[in-house]
Each structure stands twice: as structure tokens, then as C-alpha cells.
Amino acid sequence: MKVLKRICVFCGSSEGNDPQITADAIQLGATLANQEITLVYGAAKIGVMGQVAQQALDHGGKVIGIIPEFLKVKEVVHLGLTELITTTNMHQRKLKMQELSDGFITLPGGFGTLEELFEIITWAQLGLHQKPIGLLNSNGFYDDLIEMLQKMVEKGFLKEENLQLLLVENDVEILIQRMKDYEPTPVPKWLKKNRT
């Protein structure tokens, strides 16, 4: 079983309008704290991001926020975090998130959330990391995306084994358990970090 000391959560800096998404964000934050898993996230105190972080803190968990300097005002930084890391740009933020985390969970969000998910799963596909990547399909939010990914396999643009890199669940506890049980696929011998 994989030890998950830190999980990075990608999600929206907006609240959205689905109470189930908010409830799942609250449950995730509490569950991470209860399982003594440190939350790594984008440092905002607003939106779905803020809900996850506040619940983790309220349940005695550790929370590391990572934010680029230019977003500090826009995303309204949470000042009660265990640790706040400031980067110079978005790319450094994502590199730091990947470096500090043992796995990743994506909740509902917008363009930024999808961009983070697809970058981290592309890095896995390229063999740059072998960490579990979870997608919390809260109230069917990602149903259409999952259908699109399956179409990419059908049309020959995505290999089935690469689609399997994404662990999809609609239950927080089941998703975290699947991430702990995750066995990464071997990285092809021709694929080395200095070639990517």
C-alpha cells in the first residue's frame, strides 16, 4: 500500500452552484486531516479551494498553500495556513505542487483546474512521475469529460493504459483508498527524464 503523506488538490477558486460539490469539498478536507494527510493546494481562502483547506485546518490537519505572487490579491490568500509558499509564476507553482505531493485529486473547477489536471496526467504519461491521480466526479460533474476521454481512446488518440492513469470515483474515501492501492505501470525504457 502506498503511503500518502501529502495530497495536492486541484479545484475551483469559485464556489459554483451545486451544494453537493461543496459538501464533497468539505468531506475531502476533513478526510485528509483525519487520515493525517497534508493538503497541498493553491492557497486561496475562497471557492471550493477555500472549503477544502478550511475543513482540513478545522479538523487539525496541515495545509500547505502555493501561490504565484501576482495571484496573491486576486485569489485572496488564506492567511491561516500551516505553510505558505510564494512562487514567481504559474509554472513554478505547479512544479512545487508536484515536488511536494505524493498524489493528486481533482475536484470540480474551471479552466485552471482542467489545465492542472491535464498537465499532471501528461507528466505521468511521460514518466516524469508515478504518483496516483484521482478525479472526484462529484455529482456527475465530470461525466462529459470522462466520455470525451473514452472517445479519445476509441479514435486512437489516447492509449487505454494511459487513460487508466486517471482514477475516477464519486466517493472521497473510496478514491483515497484506490490511490493508496495504486500500482504504477512501468515507464518505457526509451523514456528518460532528460529526453522529455
From TrEMBL:
Keyword Hydrolase: yes
Transmembrane domains' residue ranges: none
Record keywords, A-Z: Cytokinin biosynthesis, Hydrolase
GO molecular function term, any single one: AMP nucleosidase activity
E.C. numbers: 3.2.2.n1
Gene3D superfamilies to which the protein is assigned, alphabetical: 3.40.50.450
InterPro entries: LOG (IPR005269), LOG_fam (IPR031100)
GO annotation terms (biological process): cytokinin biosynthetic process
Reaction it catalyzes: AMP + H2O = D-ribose 5-phosphate + adenine
Gene Ontology CC annotations of this record: cytosol
PANTHER family: LOG FAMILY PROTEIN YJL055W
UniProt family annotation: Belongs to the LOG family.
Protein name, per record: Cytokinin riboside 5'-monophosphate phosphoribohydrolase
